[in-house]
Design goal:
The chain is an all-alpha fold. It has 8 helices and no strands.
């Protein structure tokens, strides 16, 4: 039976498919860590209180990258280069979502509107990350090799999403509500397209590694297109709503260190 659990179990059981999965995940997390680090360094004077939280966000992303690399080492595997068509973070940047790397590489302070763009981008992508990690936590949270890593990363992603909600609401109350809603909508609509394209590319590569039949590949591709159709019609709205989280100040403390997996 084709299910999310059986599909991921198949990827997990094969060294080459697992190596590609972890390499893609580690690269994306490392990129997120760098972006947050630069944003923290360039926060405008009026938002300096936000800098430690952005730093914590980046530290968490770096930690996740180290965890995925540690999982590879535990199986005696080395990372592989990430195929460009599967690079979620870079494709988002090319679609104009988030803060451009040229801006982050400069030494000019960011503006409050830049912080709105950063938080809106994070709110949308962290929604995706939370949903994906919740799926893995549900099916593999007690897995002997993956369970600890899945639980830790999932908890961090929950904190990241809570932080985005709280900070965007703070800025909305300060008068930036219209800009926040415009930016969230643009981010969400772009993200679902990028997610579809990356999902198709990843599944195509997994299919070649695992020797899937044309029929099985076609079913998976049709499922990805169906998810996109739903998200384009209405599902994107879950990415733009804002509500005060139950856990306040979720990134107010130091980052938890990565456990040893190797």
């Amino acid at each position: 039976m084709l299910s999310a659990k059986s599909l991921f179990q198949e990827i997990l059981d094969n060294d080459e498919s697992f190596r590609l999965f972890c390499s893609i995940a580690a690269s994306g997390e490392a990129q997120g860590g760098w972006e947050n680090g630069r944003i923290a360094a360039l926060v405008p004077d009026g938002e300096r209180a936000l800098a430690p939280k952005i730093t914590r966000h980046g530290a968490d992303e770096d930690k996740h990258g180290r965890i995925f690399n540690a999982l590879l080492r535990k199986r005696g595997l080395k990372p592989v280069p990430v195929p460009p068509e599967t690079d979620y973070t870079m494709l988002l940047e090319r679609h104009g979502i988030g803060l451009a790397h040229e801006k982050l590489k400069a030494d000019e302070p960011l503006t409050v509107l830049d912080i709105v763009v950063y938080l809106a981008h994070s709110r949308v992508t962290e929604q995706r990350a939370c949903e994906q990690m919740e799926l893995l936590r549900r099916h593999f949270g007690e897995h002997p090799d993956l369970g600890r890593a899945v639980r830790m990363i999932a908890a961090d992603e929950d904190d990241h999403l809570a932080y985005c909600h709280e900070e965007l609401l703070r800025l909305a109350y300060a008068g930036h509500g219209p800009a926040i809603q415009r930016t969230l909508r643009a981010c969400a609509l772009a993200e679902i397209r990028v997610h579809r394209d990356v999902s198709l590319a990843v599944m195509a590569r997994m299919g070649r590694i695992l020797g899937w039949s044309r029929a099985r590949s076609a079913v998976l591709m049709a499922g990805i297109h169906a998810v996109y159709a739903y998200e384009r019609l209405a599902g994107w709205r879950r990415m733009v709503s804002l509500r005060m989280p139950e856990r306040r100040d979720a990134l107010g403390g130091p980052a938890n260190t990565a456990p040893e997996f190797a």
